[in-house]
Amino acid sequence: MGDLSRLLRQPVKPDYEGLKANLLRQGTPHRVHNLELFADPEISDAVCRVFGVDADLDPEDPHYALRRQVAVQRFLGYDAVVCAVQWSGFTWNRLPAEDSTQIAGQSRGTRRWMSERDGPVQSWADFEAYPWPKPEEIRTDNLEWLARNLPDDMGIYSLAGSHTVFEWVTRMFGYERLCYALYDQPDLVDAVFERAGALQTAVTRVMLQIPRLDILFGADDMGHKTQTMINPRVLIEKALPWHKKWAAMAHEQGKIYLLHSCGNLKDIMEPLIEDVRIDGKQSFEDVILPVTEAKQLYGDRIAVIGGIDVDLLCRGSEEEIRGRVREVLDVCQPGGGYCLGTGNTVANYIPLESYLIMLDEGRRYV
C-alpha cells in the first residue's frame, strides 16, 4: 500500500440536493457525485484505521456507529448515508466459507453464502411454519436519529434489501428448488412472492415517512452473465409489479427510486424503465454491459450508477484505474444522470488504495 495521504486532498462538500438533481438528469452537475449500494464494513474500518476519521468520536456513545458512518461518508466525499429499518427480517439457509481476502485488515474470516440448492420453504407446511417477520415490529430508531442529526448538506438513502422481492423468494426456496417449483408448485411460488412483497411494502411505507430519506435504493439481483436468472416473462409477471408499486409510492412523495440488480437484464430493461419507472440503475460489469454503453442506451431516460469494474479495482494499476474513471466520466457525466462508483459494491477484497484512487480521480475531474 502506497502513501494514501496523497489521495482525497481535493476538498469536496456534500450536496444532497445536487445528488438528487443529478440522479434526475437535471443538467450536468458542477462536480462528480459518488454513490454506492453499500461498502463492506471492513472498508470503513480501514478508512478509520488509516486516516483516523473516528478519532474524535466516543466509542461508548450509544450512537457511535451512526456518527462514525456519517464521518466516513463525509470524509470520502459522499452526499448521503445508507440506513434501513430495524426488525427481525427474513431468515434463510446460509453456508459458511473461508473469506479468501488476502488484504491485511480487510478479511472477516468467514463469509456466509445463500444455499443455492434449497431453502427453508419447500412445501405449504414450510410456508405456514416459516417465521415471517411482523410489520408491527419494524423500528426506525437509527433512521430517525440520522434525520435529526445529519449535517444539513447530507441525506439518507435506503439499504439494500429494503425493497427486494425476487432475491427473498430465491432465498426462501433456494435457486435450484425455485426453478423446479415454478413448474411443480406455481401456487406456492405465488404465495411466497405475495408474502415477501407485502412485507417489503410495509417496510417501504415506513421508510417513506422518514424526513431526509429521499432516495429508495431497491436491490434485486435478477440476472447472471448471459441472461436473467429465470424466464424474463416470470420476472415481469411476478417481481416487477412489486418494484412498480414501490417506485410509485416513492414518486407520489416526490422521492427517487433506484434499482440495483446484477447480471444481464437486457430482456427486462424496457419494462423496468417504461412500466416500473425506475429513476436509475446500478451494477454494471464490463463483461456484460459497460456503463458507458448503458449510458448511450438508456441515459436519456434513467440515471446510470457506478460501473468502475470490480475486477479492475482489484487487479488494475493506478494508471489503469484513473484512465478508466476519466473515460467513464467523459461519456457519462454530460447532462447529469451519472454517479461515480464501483460496478457492484465496495467489497472487502478491493484494495483500499484502489478504491480511494477511483474517488480521488473523480474529485480531480473537471
The counted number of beta strands is 9
CATH architecture label? Alpha-Beta Barrel
| Average pLDDT reading | 96
Enumerate the spans where pLDDT stays under 50 for 5 or more consecutive residues. Answer: none
> What is the succession of H and E elements?
HHHEEEHHEHHHEHHEHEHEHHEH
Strand order of the largest sheet: 1-4-5-6-7-8-9
Counting helices, strands and paired strands, the structural category is alpha/beta
CATH uppermost class: Alpha Beta
Shape from CA axes?
globular
Give me the CATH fold name: TIM Barrel
What is the radius of gyration? 20 Å
Work out the count of structural domains.
1
Number of helices: 15
Detailed description of the structure:
The structure is a single chain. The protein is built from 15 helices and nine strands. It has a single domain, classed as Alpha-Beta Barrel (TIM Barrel), CATH 3.20.20. By secondary structure, it is α/β, with parallel strands linked by helices. The strands form two sheets. It has a seven-stranded parallel β-sheet with strand order 1-4-5-6-7-8-9, with helices on both faces. Helix 6 (about 165-175) crosses helix 8 (about 185-205) and helix 8 (about 185-205) packs parallel to helix 10. The protein has helices at about 15-25, 40-50, 65-75, 125-130, 140-150, 165-175, 175-185, 185-205, 230-240, 240-250, 270-275, 290-300, 310-315, 320-330, 350-365, and strands at about 80-85, 95-100, 110-115, 155-160, 215-220, 255-260, 280, 305, 340. The two termini are about 25 Å apart.
Give a brief rundown of this model.
This protein is of the alpha/beta class and 366 residues long. It is built from 15 helices and nine strands.
